[in-house]
Amino acid sequence: MTVATHRANIMKKLALRNVVQLIRYAIQKDIVQIGTD
């Protein structure tokens, strides 16, 4: 399974249409954080 396939499956399951929505989802759910060093 490629990264693109894995990402597409996650986006389909979460009903997200693009990578921007996926990133926003990850930030809102504290899966990733921005601006931390």
Automatic annotation (TrEMBL):
Domain spans labelled HTH luxR-type: 1-30
Tree of life domain: Bacteria
InterPro entries: Sig_transdc_resp-reg_C-effctor, Tscrpt_reg_LuxR_C, WH-like_DNA-bd_sf
Name of one Pfam family that matches: GerE
Signal peptide per UniProt: none
A GO term, aspect molecular function: DNA binding
UniProt-listed PROSITE patterns: HTH_LUXR_2 (PS50043)
Gene3D superfamilies: Winged helix-like DNA-binding domain superfamily/Winged helix DNA-binding domain
Gene Ontology BP terms: regulation of DNA-templated transcription
Chain segments annotated as coiled-coil in the UniProt record: none
Protein name: Response regulator transcription factor
Species for this entry: Candidatus Manganitrophus noduliformans
